[in-house]
Specification:
Length: about 160
């Protein structure tokens, strides 16, 4: 599978929404969390935001993407087919699974993650593949890397190379 943007969302200003996700990442970094952020967009409007809250929530499950989906509320429940998740780092397997289970068809990310293999999961798993209409990365990739590097340089190295 190559990166693909469904025609139904190709008109969107991807950078505009990624900047909002990056603001969430910076907020997470300032709070001492892993600097990853996300926003959920529907019909050209942000319906929810989220950032990593691992330390604050005392839970390894408090990923930015999962928090954003959980914050989607009634709008996401009713109109999930039009939802687009923007995230500052390629989703991990848990977050990819949450996107699939929430029936969010579009994922746009900034920084590819060398260790998560989510793109390969989509390619290899027909169940996942039938749920994902758009999977596109590299949107403001350098800006995402800069934010992560500012707060967690070792984490950035791991995301980019897979080496601790």
């Amino acid at each position: 599978m190559t990166q693909y943007i469904s025609p139904e969302i190709e008109h969107l200003d991807l950078e505009k929404f990624m900047w909002k996700a990056l603001a969430q990442a910076d907020e997470a970094g300032r709070a001492g969390e892993i600097p990853i952020g996300a926003v959920l967009v529907m019909d050209g409007e942000i319906i929810s935001r989220g950032r990593a809250y691992h330390k604050e929530s005392r839970s390894q499950l408090s990923h930015a993407e999962l928090n954003t989906l959980l914050n989607g509320g009634e709008k996401l429940w009713k109109d999930y087919k039009r939802a687009i998740l923007f995230t500052t780092v390629e989703p991990c397997p848990m977050c990819l699974g949450a996107v699939v289970m929430a029936d969010v068809p579009h994922i746009i990310y900034a920084l590819p993650d060398a260790v998560v293999f989510s793109k390969k999961s989509i390619e290899a798993n027909p169940y996942i593949r039938r749920h994902i209409k758009s999977y596109f990365g590299g949107v403001l990739e350098e800006q995402s890397a800069k934010i992560i590097g500012k707060y967690r340089p070792n984490e950035l190295k791991y995301i980019q190379t897979g080496v601790m």
